[in-house]
From TrEMBL:
Cross-referenced InterPro entries: Fimb_usher, FimD_plug_dom, PapC-like_C, PapC-like_C_sf, PapC_N, PapC_N_sf
Membrane topology: Multi-pass membrane protein
Protein's organism: Iodobacter arcticus
Domain PapC-like C-terminal: 742-797
Protein's name in the database: Fimbria/pilus outer membrane usher protein
Residue intervals of the PapC N-terminal domain: 21-165
Signal peptide: 1-19
Length: 816
């Protein structure tokens, strides 16, 4: 047999400048005259032709596209990759750098010789060409940011994202109550345009509707990367950082922070709370559902809301015992600071409207609005804006100051002038002060302080719209102050979170919300990783009042299991619960708990169960609960999505309705797990990774540990940077089929030369011929085809439609 170690050394010859001659006499081969190692004699040698490759520039990857290789000099030299002007435009080079580039091969291929330090490496076996470009030639130098040249608008597509929740309960001396609620988004993509229709039905946010189904929002939008902005047409919510949000129909153009480098972006809001029992949490804005899910008893933290969410959110927590918590969350952002010389803006023109498509007796209000922020210097920003209509106008002006290690501060003043339906003119001022500080050196904690005071005669646009509907005055805001902070003490394995919001009104009762929590991880004897938490919450508003103090102790039991004890006091009711939880690697987790509640009417025992599963095609949640002599209830939620493109379709998970996603093609091979099994290719070899961050580099990886024995993948990781709402598409090099050692012969019985290359029908390197025509092949299926090449010769191997392992022991390679 041949010397396998020597052949391995041949395959990994270091890069040298000249051709290499091999002494075939040292090879332990029976037929030394039938050896061809010419393919290895020239380092990095590439034959001319068309190859499907990606182009990696400074670790940014342009997806696979046809790349031509041409001889630039003598035929004995390797063919060179042709970088066309279309590809050149996607590399993110400065205009002055592009002017230095000349072209060869009839003006089709870029010549980088005038750009010193630019290097090009062929990595064909890895599926790409690598371009190294010094940052001095690049338009953008932030390594954590993918420049617009690499953003992908994705494929034309259709999508349906939905969430449905069924709820059934029976309370003492009451009939069975059944409810079904749903919401979702129907969408289509065409080029850079996104068309979306949000729908909802059933019992929404505690308000019964006569309509079983209604469209809550219909709109279209597209990214405008050249000006870092987004254009939206249709139903929308005012996304101003200066003025309160309200619903309208019209057109809006606004800067999009997500297109900026990470240091200049805002943060996505999170919703924290404490559930007494297994509960349904609904997050909405102006009666439009943004997110709904079932959570187990105890503290919850919802972080699935997108960065684009602005304004005040309404949170409704429906407990199994029928009680309801409601509170509001202000999605306050950091002060309005802009980098020096840059201008950020938001403009809208339209007509105020009700939620959905119900009649509006007031007819709506025509308006225009705009706000801006201009970076005056490294530390100062000037910002302002206005809303104008026939009977309502508002103007705002403010300053932002970067205090560097001491945080950031902003102050602005808003003046409003309103003429109500009863000819009551109202004019007033509102003042707002914001402060924030990011502690990047101590676990990236964020603190936020906000204060706002409004005079009695001041009205926001939203208050003006409501007052017109009511044909009179309504309760308007007087003052609001907010404090939010969190801190991690790594050395003590302790974290603390605190939030306080107080809202005063001129003519209705005030609202208040307090949240405090402290979490501690510790060891006790042989038990490692125990955790304890203490939390307090207080809500005071027109819908619900109450205090809740809870304590939780969790003891790990191994293999993802834990035992928990919790005690809480909610107003005058004391509760004690013991819970067993189990978190499994397949994306499932379940809990079962038993407890007792002490109240004025006596004690009551309860039992609850909770199950959640994050499947490849849907996420499901089930909840059941029973309290002796009081109630029993059950709830179930299913959240899923379907995405359809010309390349195929797939069911998959999706949390952000109508959001960005990435379709993966596994070359017709089903059951390929991606991203740890959260996604999986279907029968047709299509998988979709949902909830992809827009304008940010996203990687999707095949879980090679879950591959079947007859499946292999040569490049298990793909990258993509997608615009908002896009359906990206990437092909994975996946091969399925039998693997075996065979002997390859020519029709006259001679063995193929030692060193001949074997590629499959897709151009993938499948192996090399060794001594006596022996070769190891993979991916063998019915009608498979392989091509062997050596010197200037080629031959083709066909696999019969019906074959056995014995019939494949020797295969004939037919020259062509």
């Amino acid at each position: 047999m041949f010397n396998r170690k020597l052949l391995g050394a041949i395959l990994f010859i270091p890069t040298i400048c000249c051709a290499v001659e091999f002494n075939v006499g040292v090879l332990d081969a029976v037929d030394r005259e039938n050896i061809d190692l010419s393919v290895f004699s020239k380092v990095g040698y590439v034959l001319p032709g068309r190859y499907i490759l990606g182009i990696k520039s400074n670790n940014f990857l342009i997806p696979e596209l046809p790349v031509m290789f041409h001889y630039r000099g003598l035929a004995e030299e390797s063919a060179e990759a042709c970088i066309t002007p279309d590809v050149l435009a996607k590399l993110g080079l400065k205009d002055e750098s592009i002017k230095l580039i000349s072209y060869w091969h009839n003006g089709e291929c870029a010549d980088f010789s005038e750009l010193k330090g630019v290097g090009l490496r062929n990595a064909i076996n890895e599926g790409y060409i690598a371009l190294g470009i010094p940052l001095a030639y690049m338009e953008y130098a932030d390594v954590d940011w993918v420049p617009p040249a690499f953003w992908d608008d994705g494929l034309p597509s259709l999508m349906l994202d939905y969430s449905a929740t069924a709820y059934e309960s029976r309370f003492k001396n009451k009939p069975i109550e059944r409810k079904l609620s749903m919401y979702g988004t129907l969408g289509a993509n065409l080029g850079a345009w996104r068309f979306r229709g949000d729908f909802q039905g059933g019992n929404q946010g505690g308000v019964e509707t006569d309509e079983r189904f209604n469209w809550s929002r219909i709109y279209a939008y597209r990214a405008l990367p050249s000006i870092n902005s987004t254009l939206i047409i249709g139903d929308n919510y005012l996304g101003s950082d200066l003025f309160d949000s309200f619903r309208y129909s019209g057109i809006a153009l606004s800067s999009d922070d997500r297109m900026l480098p990470p240091a200049l972006q805002g943060y996505a809001p999170e919703i924290r709370g404490v559930a007494k029992t297994n509960a349904k949490v609904t997050i909405s804005q102006n009666a439009n559902i943004l997110y709904e899910t079932i959570v187990p008893a105890g503290p919850f933290n919802i972080q699935e809301l997108g960065r684009g969410v602005r304004g005040q959110l309404e949170v409704r927590v429906l407990e199994q015992d029928g009680s309801i918590q409601t509170f509001s969350v202000d999605t306050a952002t950091i002060p309005y600071l802009t980098r020096p010389g840059s201008l950020r803006y938001k403009a809208a023109l339209g007509k105020s409207s009700n939620s959905g498509y119900k009649s509006d007796k007031s007819g709506g209000i025509l308006f225009g609005s705009g706000d801006f922020s201009w970076g005056v210097s490294n530390s100062w920003s000037l910002f302002g804006g206005s809303i104008f209509s026939e009977k309502y106008n508002a103007f705002a002006l403010g300053l932002g100051r970067d205090l560097y290690q001491f945080g950031a501060l902003s102050l602005h003043v808003t003046r409003s002038a309103a003429n109500l339906a009863n000819d009551n003119d109202r004019q007033g001022y509102s003042y707002r002060l914001n402060y924030s500080k990011r502690f990047d050196d101590i676990d990236g904690d964020i603190a936020f302080l906000g204060y706002r005071f409004s005079q009695h005669e001041y009205m926001s646009m939203n208050e003006f719209i409501e007052a017109n509907k009511a044909q009179g005055n309504i309760g308007n805001s007087k003052s609001m102050y907010t404090v939010t902070g969190s801190k991690s003490f790594s050395s003590f394995k302790t974290s603390v979170y605190a939030s306080y919001t107080h809202q005063d009104y001129w003519n209705i009762l005030p609202e208040e919300r307090i949240q405090l929590s402290i979490n501690k991880i510790f060891d006790s004897g042989f038990i490692k990783g125990m955790s304890a938490s203490l939390s307090f919450s207080k809500n005071v508003n027109k819908n619900s009042n109450g205090n809740m103090l809870s304590m939780n102790l969790s003891i790990p039991m191994g293999q993802g299991a834990s035992a928990n004890y919790s005690a809480s006091r909610n107003n005058d009711v004391n509760s004690h619960d013991v819970t067993y939880s189990n978190y499994q690697n397949d994306g499932s987790n379940w809990q079962i708990s038993a407890g007792v509640r002490d109240k004025e009417s006596g004690s009551a025992e309860s039992v609850r169960g909770y199950y959640a599963h994050e499947g490849a095609m849907a996420s499901t949640t089930l909840s059941v609960g029973h309290e002796s002599g009081e109630y029993w209830s059950a709830a179930a939620t299913v959240r899923s999505a379907i995405t359809i493109t010309a390349e195929g379709a797939a069911l998959h998970q999706q949390s952000v309705n109508g959001g960005t996603r990435l379709m993966l093609d596994t070359a017709g091979v089903g059951g390929v797990a991606v991203n740890g099994g959260r996604s999986q290719s279907n029968y047709w070899g299509k998988a979709v990774v949902g909830d992809v961050n827009s304008y940010a580099r996203t990687s999707a990886a095949v879980d090679v540990n879950q591959l079947a024995d007859d499946v292999e993948v040569s490049s298990p990781v793909v990258d993509a940077t997608l615009t908002e709402g896009a359906v990206g598409y990437r092909k994975l090099s996946v091969q399925q089929g039998m693997k075996l050692m065979t002997t390859l012969t020519l029709p006259d019985g001679r063995y193929l030369p030692f060193g001949a290359q074997i590629v499959d029908a897709k151009g993938r390197m499948a192996g090399l011929v060794s001594d006596s025509g022996m070769a190891y092949l993979s991916g063998i299926n019915s009608d498979s085809e392989f091509t062997a090449t050596w010197s200037d010769s080629k031959c083709r191997v066909y696999i019969a439609e019906k074959y056995t392992r014995q019939s494949l022991a020797t295969l004939t390679c037919v020259p062509y």
